[in-house]
Design brief:
heterodimer, A: Aldehyde Ferredoxin Oxidoreductase,  A, domain 1, Aldehyde Ferredoxin Oxidoreductase Protein, subunit A, domain 2, 11% strand, B: Ubiquitin-like (UB roll), 18% helix
Chain lengths: 613, 93
């Protein structure tokens, strides 16, 4: 077995309690690398199309990559995958923290769950042995209590991922939490855990991740840290929350539910300045062995908002979602909303977008105080924002209507609310307005990325050939910021992968794996009958109509042209989006090529027989 | 010649704290003339936004002219009544 892998996948049937281990061939790891690469292939092979995302047949998995728990900086990530109850298609979410490495130290590259437990349970993986345990005492409890209780029971060296009440109550924007705020938030996968009555997974162990060339890996780590010294100092101090104010005015952060202009609608954004974001900081912390340590925890809130000590310091996405997108510049209220989402297990990107949607409905008279349980949801009303988030995470009153995302909320509210429901394919978008990037045929983010992604609305994966490196990074289990940041000695991806695995791979081959992974996510959706060209995309995302002022005045994305170019570059059909037979064969997906391109679908044979392949 | 207001967003604004810059331009002014005018008016842009000693934008910076983006190596003709803004595409996180 190559370095970087524990060589085992665990399969748990929650209906029967049966557990089996599998040891994939090294060729499987080489092809699908890890994370959602492995996840997409396993779900494609073992899950039928059309299953209920909240039913027993939906496979839910937590998967690491070969660089998770290795000397690679930022090698701390795991991914959650399942069919998404929010979009109805491929779902993945990605988180840092310590859980990913500890899942490997406990002996597994990934764990897959099927079935539904009769009663609430958690999975305890202890140094190569797994056990399903009763979680009745944890059901109904928030993620802070759950993590503390499980660590009290299994020791401080146990790492925990869990859901909160939002996931238990099947909120379709529920996420999975570790370290009281590191979130695999997207795709509604917290609801999948809730539906399975799987409260948590605990990993503990002392196994070592095998490294093919530890001397080289450690040298590369040292060099990488030296290369990023200047960047890391700033990143350590402020994390991703360093530019909430600037982005609100630069055209990056969406403003007033994607319909406003920062410099016009919220001219004073000083409340979102980076120094306010760290004003109540208690201590900085990081993901497992990350030299940047870009995260932090706060002291208890002493002002109007009494969030508890240990609340995680804000990340950019949360600042954007509850800040400019709601017309709110009160950072303490955002800390409180962040705490509520983390404790109850709800995605902050979706939650902030839902509040913005409700505010715009309120401002336009679609809903009134009668609908909102008396909350006055005017733009920028931070007290209303916090009150509404509390109702959403608890699914109380009006919050229950909102807790499944803007698409479903608009359907429930009616009265034309759908025109303010900003989403792509059912999911709320990351807090980067793609219009500011222009067409970005070779970069990210772009409007087509939100539209054409197998998990629409995600902002960390790009679309087209630029997505290959993103898929590779995610599959490797590394942080897209710190591991992928441009550095003096060039990219570390290939060198570190080869030091850890011993594969001796070219970058071209690794990028081909990224392409294969992107194709597998897409193939999962195709089998579900999903053509991304038919994903709904709210007009504001692409400037239809365009904004009239500010940095993006007059800008309309030519999203059809972007898709046309990218589909051609991917060798996917420009109407059906089905990958060509040649592309599938090139990627080594021969079985799927046979499935999608049976002889009757092949081009007619002329004189002289079939064309050469 | 006509007077043109160039709006500044994102890093160009953070660097200069100027929300707009007024410049005298010839009708049909192209990228090089606009960049040269900006450098003359706001020297702080030279280096981080404008390539030192050249009438060219740094990579990533661009103009939004009437809803269309123009990066370094692209050209345009600016006329009275056109709306022009200088911005940088994305941050991150």
């Amino acid at each position: 077995m190559a370095g970087g892998y524990m060589g085992k996948l665990l399969f748990v049937d929650l209906s029967t309690g049966k557990m089996t281990e599998e040891t994939p061939d090294e060729s499987f790891y080489r092809k699908y690398i890890g994370g959602y690469g492995i996840g997409a292939r396993v779900l494609y092979d073992r899950q039928k199309a059309g299953v209920d995302p909240l039913g027993p047949e939906n496979i839910f998995a937590l998967i690491t990559g070969p660089l998770t728990g290795s000397p690679a900086i930022g090698g701390a990530r795991y991914q959650a995958v399942a069919k998404s109850p929010l979009t109805g298609g491929w779902g993945d979410a990605n988180s840092g923290g310590h859980f990913g490495p500890y899942l490997k130290f406990a002996g597994y590259d990934g764990v897959f769950f099927t079935g539904i437990s009769e009663k609430p349970v958690y999975l305890f993986i202890d140094d190569g042995k797994a056990e399903i345990r009763d979680a009745a005492h944890l059901w109904g409890k928030d993620t802070y209590f759950t993590e503390d209780a499980l660590r009290a029971e299994h020791g401080a060296a146990a790492e925990v991922i869990c859901i909160g009440p939002a996931g238990e109550k099947l909120s379709l924007v529920a996420g999975i939490i570790t370290h009281k705020g590191d979130a695999a938030g997207r795709s509604g996968l917290g609801a999948v855990m809730g539906a399975k009555k799987l409260k948590a997974v605990v990993a503990r162990g002392n196994k070592k991740v095998p490294i093919a060339d530890i001397k080289t890996a450690n040298r590369l780590r040292k060099e990488h840290i030296e290369d990023l010294k200047g960047f890391m100092e700033h990143f350590h101090k402020y994390g991703t929350g360093s530019h909430g104010d600037m982005s609100a005015h630069s055209g990056d952060t969406p403003v007033l539910n994607w319909g406003g202009v920062g410099v016009v609608d919220i001219p004073d954004v000083s409340g979102l300045n980076k120094d306010h974001v760290i004003a109540n900081l208690d201590k900085r912390m990081g993901c497992w062995h990350c030299p940047a340590a870009c995260k932090g925890v706060l002291k208890a809130g002493t002002g109007e908002y009494k969030y508890p000590a240990g609340t995680q310091r804000l990340e950019y996405e949360t600042i954007g979602a509850f800040g400019a997108n709601c017309g709110n510049t009160n950072v303490e209220s955002i800390n409180m909303a962040n705490h509520l989402c983390n404790a109850y297990g709800m995605d902050t990107i979706s939650a902030g977008t839902i509040v913005a949607f409700a505010m715009e409905c309120y401002e336009n008279g679609i809903i009134t105080r009668k609908d909102t349980d008396g909350i006055e949801l005017n733009w920028g009303n931070h007290r209303a924002l916090v009150a509404l988030v509390e109702k959403m995470v608890k699914r109380e009153g009006f919050g229950d209507i909102l807790a499944d995302g803007v698409k479903i909320a608009a359907e429930k509210i009616g009265r034309g609310a759908e025109k303010f429901a900003v989403h792509a394919g059912g999911q709320e978008l990351g807090m980067h307005d793609p219009k500011v990037a222009g067409h970005q045929f070779a970069g990210m983010p772009s409007s087509a990325m939100y539209w054409m992604n197998a998990t629409p609305g995600r902002h960390t994966q790009a679309f087209g050939p630029a997505s290959f490196i993103s898929h590779l990074n995610n599959a490797l289990g590394t942080c897209m910021i710190i591991f992928m940041w441009p550095s003096a000695r060039g990219p570390y991806v290939q060198r570190m992968v080869n030091a850890v695995t011993g594969w001796g791979c070219s970058m071209e081959k690794l990028l081909k794996a990224g392409e294969r992974i992107g194709n597998m996510r897409h193939l999962f959706n195709l089998r579900e009958g999903i053509n991304p060209l038919k994903h709904y995309l709210h007009g504001r995302i692409i400037g239809r109509p365009p904004l009239q002022d500010g940095p993006l005045a007059g800008v309309t994305s030519d999203v059809e042209a972007e898709a046309w170019w990218h589909l051609g570059a991917l060798d996917w059909d420009r109407i059906t989006t089905v990958p060509s037979r040649n592309k599938l064969l090139e990627l080594g997906l021969n079985d799927i090529a046979e499935e999608l391109w049976p002889p009757e679908k092949m081009p007619g044979m002329g004189p002289g027989g079939p064309p050469p392949r | 010649m006509f007077k043109c207001v160039i709006y500044m967003y994102g890093l160009p604004y953070e660097i200069t704290t100027l929300r707009e810059v007024e410049a005298e331009l010839s009708d049909g002014a192209g990228m090089a003339e606009v960049v040269a005018a900006l450098r003359e008016k706001v020297s702080a842009l030279e280096g981080p936004v404008i390539r030192t000693g050249q009438d060219r934008l740094e990579e990533n910076y661009k103009f939004n002219i009437n809803g269309n983006f123009y990066y370094d190596s692209m050209d345009f003709q600016l006329h009275p009544g056109d709306r022009i803004a200088l911005l940088v595409p994305v941050t991150g996180g």
